[in-house]
Design brief:
Shape: globular
CATH superfamily of the largest domain: Jelly Rolls
Distance between the termini: 33 Å
CATH architecture of the largest domain: Sandwich
Order of helices and strands: EEEHEEHEEHEEEEEHEEEEEEEEEE
Strand content: 25-35%
Strand order of the largest sheet: 1-20-17-22-15-14-13
Mean pLDDT: 95
Length: 327
C-alpha cells in the first residue's frame, strides 16, 4: 500500500491548570472538564497512558502511529527514530492557570538514568491574554540553596524570570531549562518524544508530586539567560514565511496566506508535520484532507502533496532533520 498524509484522533489530557480554550481549535471539550493538552501526534515509550496516536483517515484508520511505522518504515525516509519512537511529539496547550515550574532531564542525566528521556521543546504562542507571560530560567545569581529555600517558602516566583509574550512568538526551551507556561497563554508545542518532567514548584497547589532533587541535578545554575530574538517574516508572492526555530531535533516555520494560494509541500528524505492554526487549508493528494483550523497532518517522506490555503490561513510546518541527536 502506498502511504498518504495521515490525520490522527486528538488525545485530550485533563489538567488542573487546563481550561476550555482548545474548543476554538476544533477539539470537543467535555463541559466542565479542564483540558490542558491535546496531543495531536504522539508515539511515546511503553507505559505512558494515552501516549500513542491512532490514525483517523484512510485505509490505515484505527492503527497506531507505532504500528504504521513498524509496517511501513518508508514513512521515515532517512529520518531516525528517537528512543524507538517517532522523533516528534506535537501538542496544543491551554494554560488557563500557571503550569508547574518544571525541568526536563539533560543529556547527562539521561545517560545516567535509562528510564528518562530528553525533552527539548518549542512553544509557538497562539493566543495570550493581556499581561500574560511565560517563566524561563532562574534570576541571575540564583543558587541551588536559594532555589530550595524559595521552594520551602512558596516564593519561587521571586527567583524565576517572567517574560511577557504576544501572539506569534516562539520560544525554544532545551532540556535542563527551568520553565513554566503562564496563565492565559495557548500554545502549539513541538518537542522530542518524552513525557519526563521534574516538577520544582506548583504555585501553592497541593497534591501533586514534586521532584526537586532530580530537577536541581539538571539545572545549570551558571547558565547565561536564553535569548529569544524573533525572526522577521519573508514575503514571496502571496505567502509570508517565518522561520520560528531551527534545532538539532526539529525545524518550525509558519506560513501565512496573504491571498488564496496553492503551495507545493511535497516531502523528500524525511517526513513533515503540518498544523493549521488559523483559517482554511486543504491537502491535495489521492487521499485529500480538509485541514481546517486545529487539524494536524503527518506527511510521510517521499510524498507529493499541494497545500491549498485560503486568504488569512496560517499553517505551522515542522520538519524532522535526517540527522537527529539521540539520547
Amino acid at each position: 500500500m502506498e502511504l498518504y498524509p495521515l490525520l490522527f484522533e486528538p488525545i485530550l489530557k485533563e489538567k488542573v491548570w487546563g481550561g476550555q480554550s482548545l474548543a476554538s481549535f476544533g477539539k470537543t471539550i467535555p463541559e466542565g472538564v479542564a483540558i490542558g493538552e491535546s496531543w495531536e501526534l504522539a508515539d511515546l515509550p511503553d507505559g505512558i497512558d494515552g501516549g500513542r496516536s491512532v490514525v483517523a483517515n484512510g485505509p490505515l484508520a484505527g492503527q497506531t502511529l507505532r504500528d504504521v511505522i513498524a509496517n511501513h518504515p518508508e514513512l521515515l525516509g532517512n529520518a531516525k527514530l528517537m528512543n524507538g519512537c517517532f522523533p516528534l511529539l506535537i501538542k496544543f496547550l491551554d494554560a488557563n492557570d500557571n503550569l508547574s515550574v518544571q525541568v526536563h532531564p539533560t543529556k547527562r542525566y539521561v545517560e545516567e538514568h535509562a528510564e528518562t528521556h530528553l525533552k527539548s521543546e518549542a512553544w509557538i504562542v497562539l493566543d495570550a491574554k493581556e499581561g500574560s507571560c511565560i517563566y524561563v530560567g532562574l534570576a541571575h545569581g540564583t543558587t541551588e540553596s536559594q532555589l530550595r529555600s524559595a521552594i520551602e517558602a512558596d516564593s519561587v516566583r521571586d527567583v524565576i524570570r517572567g517574560i511577557p509574550v504576544t501572539r506569534g512568538d516562539c520560544y525554544y526551551l532545551p532540556s535542563g531549562t527551568c520553565h513554566a507556561l503562564g496563565e492565559g497563554v495557548v500554545v502549539a508545542e513541538v518537542q522530542t518524544p518524552s513525557d519526563t518532567t521534574f516538577r520544582v514548584w506548583d504555585w501553592g497547589r497541593k497534591g501533586r508530586t514534586m521532584h526537586v532533587d532530580e530537577a536541581v541535578e539538571c539545572i545549570d545554575f551558571y547558565a547565561a539567560p536564553l535569548s529569544f530574538a524573533q525572526n522577521e517574516p519573508l514575503v514571496s508572492g502571496h505567502v509570508q514565511t517565518t522561520l520560528l526555530t531551527s534545532t538539532a531535533f526539529f525545524t518550525a516555520e509558519r506560513i501565512d496566506a496573504l491571498e488564496d494560494v496553492a503551495i507545493d509541500m511535497s516531502t523528500d528524505v524525511s517526513p513533515r508535520v503540518l498544523m493549521t492554526i488559523e483559517g482554511e487549508a486543504n491537502i491535495e493528494h489521492e487521499q485529500p484532507i480538509d485541514a481546517s483550523c486545529g487539524q494536524t497532518v503527518l506527511v510521510p517522506a517521499n510524498t507529493d502533496i499541494t497545500l491549498s490555503l485560503r486568504k488569512d490561513a496560517s499553517v505551522l510546518v515542522f520538519d524532522v532533520p535526517t540527522e537527529t541527536m539521540i539520547a
